[in-house]
Amino acid sequence: MSFVRNARYLMGRSIHNIQKRGFADEMKLTFAAANQTFYDQSEVRQIDVPSFSGSFGILAKHVPTLAVLKPGVVQVIENDGKTSKYFVSSGSITVNEDSSVQVLAEEAHKVEDIDVSEAKQLLSQYQSQLNSASSEEAKAEAAIAIECAEALVRAAE
C-alpha cells in the first residue's frame, strides 16, 4: 500500500472512530483520596487540574486522557456554578470516553481548611531537612516534600 493510500485509510478510520465514539453531554466526577471521598459520580460542569504535563480544564466531551497530578489545586465547578477548591499532594486523573472523570489523590483537603501558618511552618521544616540532608536519597525526599509544601502555601494564601 502506498503512503498516500495508508494516510487516507488511517484518516478514514479516525473519522469513523470519532463519529462512533458518541460522547455524553454530561460529565460525572469521582474525586477521592485516602482520607475522604469528595464526589461520587456527581454531575459537574468543569474540573481544573494541575498535572506534570501542565494544568488543564476538563469539560464534557473532553478527549480521553490519563495524567499524573502534581501538588496544587483541583477546582470543581458544579452545574449550579458553585466552585470548590481542593489541595492535592499527588495522584492521577483519568478522563474516559463517556465523559466520566476520576481524580484519585494521594491526599486531598478543602483549600478553606488549610492553615496558612501551619503550611509555612511545614515548608520551613522541609527546607531545614534539605539543608541538613547527608545522603542523596534524603535530599531527594526533602526536595519532593518542599515542592508539595510550597504548593500547599500557595493554595492557602
Radius of gyration: 20 Å
Query: What is the overall silhouette?
Result: elongated
How much helix, percentage-wise, in residues?
25-40%
The CATH class designation of the largest domain is: Mainly Beta
* Largest beta-sheet characterization: 9 strands, mixed
* Total of helices: 3
CATH fold type of the largest domain: ATP Synthase, domain 1
Structural class: alpha+beta
Features:
alpha+beta, 3 helices, 157 residues, single chain, 9 strands, nine-stranded mixed β-sheet, ATP Synthase, domain 1
Fold topology:
Layout lengths: L2 H19 L5 E7 L3 E13 L6 E3 L6 E5 L2 E7 L4 E6 L2 E5 L4 E6 L2 E3 L5 H17 L3 H21 L1
Parallel strand pairs: 1-8
Antiparallel strand pairs: 1-2, 2-3, 2-5, 4-7, 5-6, 6-9, 7-8
Outline:
It holds the Pfam family ATP-synt_DE_N. With 157 residues, the protein is α+β, with helices and mostly antiparallel strands.
Structure description:
By secondary structure, the protein is α+β, with helices and mostly antiparallel strands. The chain has 2 domains: 23-112, ATP Synthase, domain 1 (Sandwich), CATH 2.60.15.10; 114-156. 36% of the residues lie in helices and 35% in strands. It contains 3 helices and 9 strands; from the N terminus they run αβββββββββαα. Strands 1, 2, 3, 4, 5, 6, 7, 8 and 9 form a 9-stranded mixed beta sheet that branches. β7 (91-95) and β8 (100-105) form a beta hairpin. It starts with a helix and ends with a helix.
